[in-house]
Amino acid sequence: MSIPDKVRKDLWAKSGNRCAICRKEFFTSIDTDDFNIGEECHIVSPKPNGPRHIENYGDYDAYDNIILLCRNHHKEIDDPANFSKYTVAKLAEIKKEHENWVRQSLKPKKMAVFSLINNGTDLVSIIGGSVAINKFNDEIQSENEAELIGGFWQEITDFMDIFLDLEPIEITRMEFSYSKLIKELNESGFMVYGRKIKIPLLKKYGDTILYSAANIYIKRK
Q1: 102, 119, 189, 214: which could form a disulfide with 179 (CB 3.0–4.6 Å)?
Q2: SS3 label, residue 93
């Protein structure tokens, strides 16, 4: 008997192309030629004199009885001197823990939620009082876009520097000015998104204080 193709495919996929013990990736490139150092190993050997053989075990080529290892660890687990260390139960545990690790590692990360900024009032509510700003934008494709987006970043950076010194009437005027900038960006094919976050800053004597920061993203429509 040989390991079925479906078992083999499931094994490689769920093991993430890594050794279940050292988690080393299997495909390596030397002199531009790719070669595979991964090996499909039986936990319970089908051979009567093989490592950890159990008579009448059942399907020796079943998925649960195959573990993906690098050559070094395949040799290590099959060394008679290590049989007490790598028992059937222990190898099954290693296989399960590794596949859980792969599944968690590949799980899509939760995306940050950005709100659409429609006008200057929306924008000021996010950047006003923030101690820092994280600026993101899609790739710039022309000098006009560079001028437009660069000018927007400069405007809001300057605003944040003086926000605490502004009178209400001045803030209102800036909101009106930003509405025009956002409209110009919209007409040029961009949308503005943002969100307010809290960042911890370590102060003297070990105190940690949370400050507001702004994330702004200019995205092409």
Answers
A1: 119
A2: helix
Query: Quick one: pLDDT band at residue 69, thresholds 50, 70, 90?
Result: very high
- What is the Cα–Cα distance from 68 to 94, expressed in whole angstroms? 10
List phi, psi (to 5°) of 207.
-75, 140
Compute the distance between CA of residue 44 and CA of residue 53 in angstroms, rounded to an integer: 5
Written as one letter, the residue type at 83 is: F
d(Cα 221, Cα 218) in Å, to the nearest integer? 9
Looking from the CA of 96 toward its CB, the CA atoms found within 13 Å total 7
What is the Cα–Cα distance from 58 to 65, expressed in whole angstroms?
Answer: 10
pLDDT (tens digit per residue) in 40-57: 999 999 999 999 999 999
Phi, psi of 214 (to 5 degrees): -115, 135
Among residues 57, 52, 54, 65, which one has the least CA distance to residue 4? 65
Find the angle CA(194)-CA(197)-CA(201) to the nearest 5 degrees: 140
User: CA torsion sign, 155 to 157 to 160 to 166?
Assistant: negative
Contacts of 21 by beta carbon, 8 Å cutoff, 6+ apart: 69, 70, 73, 94, 98
| pLDDT one-digit tens code per residue, 91-150 | 999 999 999 999 888 766 665 688 999 999 999 999 998 888 889 999 999 999 999 999
Collapsing DSSP to helix, strand or coil, 145 comes out as helix
Least Cα distance to 214 among 140, 152, 129, 112 occurs for 129
